[in-house]
Design brief:
With 389 residues, the chain is α/β, with parallel strands linked by helices. The chain folds into 2 domains: 177 residues, FAD/NAD(P)-binding domain; 113 residues, FAD/NAD(P)-binding domain, CATH 3.50.50.60. Helix content is 30%, strand content 24%. It contains 10 helices and 24 strands. Strand 10, helix 6 and strand 11 form a beta-alpha-beta unit. It is globular and about 65 Å long. The relative contact order is 0.16. Bound molecules: flavin-adenine dinucleotide. Flavin-adenine dinucleotide binds next to helix 1, strand 2, helix 2, helix 6 and helix 9.
């Protein structure tokens, strides 16, 4: 089979490596990535704080695996069997879309023009700007009370004690945490001098944010308002949801297209297992699952459904504090959690594990595992009977 994997993030790389191990050169596997390195996105708030994240070259991560690496930006997906990189055509029999996501900068006016984001290029620009703003006691406004907003605000406040940091959120912070988790989160924000405000942003202008009832001035604004999938996927005509994620069946095949598979941030299950968010903790298992299913297909077997249950949230609160909030099988947070220095240490181990799991996979060692429902699942022959898009 000619298999093309589109995207060299966590999901695409683990999928390519596992598939190469399983099929041992029988199939042609090509991984296409716009960037020659794996962007370690889960550490981009650290990059914004001026830390050196190092580089993980894709050529090195895939070396010796038998996967062909193609660096280039895909400009069109033709679901009938071709990808286009400008004028160049790349044919596939099986396609895995692992194109990931980016911060949504279009749903609120002014974000694109006046705010930084935790995308690789913008995080680098923010890192360059913040030291001078901090030196004169300037204001950083972080917008978004989700996990990236919280990690961003705490990391930047810790790295630049001179900065006046405000975290603006439309909802309650730490909604997915237990009461003890939320209490610890607010304590950490207080300790780091981060002011929390509530409000819905209408627009961002140069130097200020307009809310329904007031405006807030800033010297730098970090927008952490959620992720969307690149437009390329929607433009392909494949079925997508409002965030541009491909709609996939329980075996992660795109609805109505059995030879196209969606993994990572770029895909959303039509029948979701409990509590599944965009995250590397789901992207990597999805990559493994599709690789195993494609290997089954090579052997003439039917694919297996993706069985995943979230285990925990792990949040950094700067380099010296963190939170590990475990979840029950039903998706509710447990009252007990790990916090403080132990939480920070665990979060660091999780971040290291993510890249290490890719390196181990290349060496033939499988260290990726995830919690499952425990239900007995049978192979699924075709999409007949699954929900329509
Ligand atoms: C600051 C921050 C902290 C985070 N913390 C956590 C966390 O603690 N836990 C967690 O689970 N998740 C976390 N996430 C989310 C996590 O980073 C993403 O869910 C994860 O990166 C998704 O992996 P992916 O492989 O699907 O996509 P990505 O990592 O986005 O990779 C997509 C790949 O597709 C390539 N690509 C895109 N467009 C094209 C194109 N047109 N042509 C060719 N290639 C293309 C890109 O170059 C890239 O290689 C965090 C994210 C951020 C920003």
């Amino acid at each position: 089979m000619r298999i093309v994997i589109l995207g060299g993030g966590y999901a695409g790389v683990i999928c390519a490596l596992r598939l190469a191990r399983r099929t041992r050169g029988q199939d042609s596997i090509t991984l296409v990535s716009a960037s020659p390195s794996l962007v370690d996105r889960i550490r981009l708030h650290q990059q914004a704080a001026g830390q050196d994240l190092g580089k993980h070259g894709l050529a090195e991560l895939l070396a010796g695996s038998g996967v062909t690496l193609k660096i280039g930006r895909v400009t069109r997906i033709d679901p009938r069997g071709s990808l286009y990189l400008g004028d160049e055509r790349l044919a596939f029999e099986q396609l895995v879309v692992a194109i990931g996501s980016r911060v949504d900068v279009d749903s609120v006016p002014g974000v694109r023009e006046h705010a930084f984001t935790l995308d690789a290029a913008s995080a680098g620009e923010l890192a360059a700007r913040l030291p001078s703003i901090a030196a004169r006691g300037g204001r950083l406004l972080v917008i978004g009370g989700g996990l990236t907003g919280i990690e961003g605000a705490t990391e930047l406040a810790e790295a630049h004690p001179g900065l006046q940091v405000t975290l603006l959120s439309s909802g309650e912070l730490g909604e997915n945490l237990s009461e003890a988790g939320r209490t610890h989160l607010y304590e950490a924000l207080r300790r780091l001098g981060v002011t929390v405000q509530k409000g819905q942003v209408r627009r961002i202008q140069a130097g200020s944010v307009e809310l329904a009832d007031r405006s807030l001035p800033f010297d730098a604004c970090l927008w952490a308002g959620g992720f969307v999938v690149p437009e390329l996927v929607r433009q392909s005509g494949l079925p997508v949801n409002s965030r541009g994620q491909l709609l996939v069946d329980p075996c992660l095949r795109v609805i109505g297209h059995e030879n196209i598979h969606g993994i990572g941030d770029a895909a959303a299950l039509v029948e979701p297992p409990s509590h599944m968010l965009m995250g590397c903790k789901t992207a990597i298992p999805m990559g493994v699952q599709v690789a195993e299913n494609l290997a089954r297909l090579s052997r003439g077997e039917d694919p297996l459904p993706f069985d995943y249950v979230d285990t925990a949230f792990c949040i950094s609160l700067g380099r010296r504090d963190g939170l590990l909030q475990p979840y029950r099988l039903d998706g509710s947070p447990t009252p007990w959690l790990l916090r403080g220095r132990m939480g920070a240490w665990l979060k660091e181990q999780v971040c290291r594990f993510v890249v290490t799991s890719l390196r181990f996979e290349r060496m033939g060692l499988n260290i990726v595992a995830w919690r499952k429902t425990g239900r007995k699942l049978s192979p699924v022959a075709s999409q007949q009977g699954t929900l329509a898009a």
